[in-house]
Amino acid sequence: MATGQGFPDAPPLDDVRFAASWVDPPVVVVAVDGGEVVGAYLKPNFPGRAAHIANAGYMVAEAARGRGVGRELVEHSIFRAPAEGFDAIMFNLVFESNPARALYERLGWRRIGEVPRGVDDEPAIIYWRDVWP
Ligand SMILES: CC(C)(COP(=O)(O)OP(=O)(O)OC[C@H]1O[C@@H](n2cnc3c(N)ncnc32)[C@H](O)[C@@H]1OP(=O)(O)O)[C@@H](O)C(=O)NCCC(=O)NCCS
After folding, report:
1. What is the CATH number of the domain that holds 96?
2. Domain that holds residue 120
3. Does residue 7's CB lie within 6 angstroms of at least one atom of ligand 1?
4. What span, in angstroms and rounded, lies between the C-alpha atoms of 101 and 42?
5. Which range, 2-6, 10-14, 53-57, 60-64, is most confident?
6. What is the model's pTM?
7. Residue 126: pLDDT band by 50, 70, 90 thresholds?
8. 4 in a structural domain
9. Ligand 1 pocket member 103 (CB < 6 A)
């Protein structure tokens, strides 16, 4: 954030696009660990009658990675989503090279599709998981 990079937005990040991703969604979870910021959002992935399917995103500051915080954030989404009326969580475009894929697959997400040129000519994977208790 400090350097104008963003997730899931491409840099340069501005306040309006930051807010759209990290302030406006119905559920935003943020924690600060020794000055390092981590967060997750949960929001409808579609309008109307498909709004029961959530979309989620996760961000752990580089210095705080590799200590299980990301896994905690993902597990929290699985726990929280039904209370918000969602029955599934879907990830739309996960870079084929993103190490987060292994985390999602271990936590029960099914690969339901692939977009051949998803982001910058890199294939991207679509994941879906039921979260109804
Ligand atoms: C994805 C992200 C949230 C993971 O956060 P984290 O706190 O490092 O995750 P954890 O420490 O809980 O690790 C989760 C799992 O992924 C693995 N993992 C994490 N980073 C990894 C890496 N760089 N290479 C390989 N494996 C990795 C861990 O081994 C762990 O597996 P385990 O739970 O079976 O032990 C973090 O890397 C991030 O913010 N990335 C940039 C934004 C992003 O890509 N978000 C997801 C987009 S779909």
Report:
1. 3.40.630.30
2. 27-130
3. yes
4. 18
5. 53-57
6. 0.91
7. very high
8. no
9. yes
